[in-house]
Amino acid sequence: MGGRLRQKVDMLPDDLYQVNERIRKAFHEVAFSEIIENENIRKVAEEGHKAFLSVFNPRARVEFLKLLTYFRNTTIEITTDDFFLPWELLYIDTLEKPILYENFLGAKNIISRIIDSGDIPFPSLYINQAIPRIGLLTNNDLEYVTLREIPFFDRLHEEQKISLLKLGILNADDRKEGMRNFEIFLTNELDIAHFACHAFGNDEHDLSYMELSEQFEITLSDLRMLEKLQLFDNPIVILNACGTGNINSKHASFFAKEFLKFGAKGVIATDCEIPDSFAAEFAEQFYLEFLDGTPLGEALLKTRRYFLEELNNLTVLIYAMYATPMIKIANRQISRWQGE
Fold first, then answer.
1. Which of 37, 167, 199, 311 ranks highest by number of CB atoms within 10 Å?
2. Degrees, nearest 5: CA angle 72-74-77
3. How far apart (Å, rounded) are the C-alpha atoms in residues 26 and 37?
4. Residues 269 and 314 in one domain
5. Comparing 133 with 29, which gets the higher pLDDT?
6. Distance between CA 239 and CA 120 in Å, rounded?
7. How far apart are the C-alpha atoms of 146 and 255, rounded to whole Å?
8. Residue 38 has what pLDDT?
9. Chosen domain end from 61, 85, 114
């Protein structure tokens, strides 16, 4: 609107941690419930609304909501190194009215997180390959990764919509060799590195980890030891992590920051734990949008709209984007494969 409004967020680090924990616990009841319960959705809305009130003072709320009213599909950019929230789950309307998906911040807005990843040259916004090269890193112990997610990527490869490279099973008994193979795999010519795996948080952040097949754990500390790793082709990293771990937005941001430091063009990660069945569904819908040439932020927003409008599923709001929303596959228009 041509002006600037500065405001202080009166929260201590422990306050922020508690806000994250309350949202995460309320969200868990929705994500892992077999039946959509209005009561559970209300709990998420209540915690999301408390977070909204905690972050924005009365004047800032008025101005912020005014901006959201003036513009459709607003892009919200959050630049921070240590203030992390599942922003998409902030509930911006009063709780006195019926609870609506539309009032969660991520339901109608593109939210872009920009974090400092060091002195890394700004990568190109475009993927120039006619057939995008995707590297797939999986935990085959997860039922829906094996039954749905891997076959989905195999089908795209067979139909020549992607070029697929798979990481083999890493030997947990020889961690040095396993980490070497992991590092070599990521230095391949890739446009997207897609992780379909478990993820677990830890109060000691360096011990938070992803788990690939054969229980091969890759901690934040392990990633930080890969000081010379360079992702030369600046792939997008999709951390489609699931399971029953204690992941929260701060843990997710740490993983994202490491991959950005290695040269990733951008990262999409989950701020809380999700079922592997939903992670597989998300992958199918997201790639349907992104591989069709839709910019990254819009593709993620369209994926959210699909799950919210067609399936009444709030789980999709937990996916966070650490990237500029304009990243896209250049000159890419393919036939949609649903129903083919």
1. 199
2. 180
3. 12
4. yes
5. 133
6. 21
7. 24
8. 85
9. 114
Rounded CA-CA distance 317/109 in Å is: 11
Is 119 a domain residue? no
Non-local (6+) Cβ contacts of 303 within 8 A are: 282, 285, 286, 289, 316, 319
| pLDDT average, residue stretch 81-89 | 89
Q: Once rounded to an integer, what is the mean pLDDT over residues 92-105?
A: 96
Query: Looking at the chain, how many residues does it have?
Result: 340
Number of domains in the chain: 2
State how far the Cα of 234 lies from the Cα of 35, in Å rounded to an integer. Answer: 40
CB atoms under 10 Å from CB of 120, counted, come to: 15
Among residues 59, 68, 120, 125, the alpha carbon closest in space to that of 91 is found at 68
Report the percentage of the chain scoring pLDDT > 70.
92
- Return the closest-CA partner of residue 260 out of 121, 117, 122, 123: 117
**Residues with Cβ within 8 Å of residue 94, at least 6 apart in sequence:** 49
Beta strand 319-322 pairing with 266-270 = antiparallel
Nearest C-alpha neighbor of 271 from the set 296, 294, 295, 251: 251
Give the residue among 32, 8, 30 at the shortest CA–CA distance from 245: 32
Query: Are 164 and 250 part of one and the same domain?
Result: yes
Contact criterion met (CB below 8 Å) for 286 and 299 = yes
Query: Last residue of some domain: 84, 114, 144?
Result: 114
- On whether both 84 and 212 belong to a single domain, the answer is no
The pair of structure tokens assigned to 168 is 């083999």
Query: What's the token pair of residue 311?
Result: 């399936």
Domain that holds residue 183: 126-329
User: pLDDT confidence of 119, banded at 50, 70, 90?
Assistant: low
In whole angstroms, how far apart are CA 212 and each of 137, 171, 217, 252, 256?
A: 7, 10, 6, 17, 17
Distance CA 154, CA 162 (A): 9
Which tokens go with 218? 């890759």
- Token pair for 292: 């069709």
Q: What is the pLDDT of residues 301-340, one digit of tens each?
A: 999 999 999 999 999 999 999 999 999 998 765 444 444 4
* Residue 119 CB-half CA count within 13 A: 0
Question: Do 208 and 251 meet the contact criterion of CB atoms below 8 Å apart?
Answer: yes
Residue type, 109: N
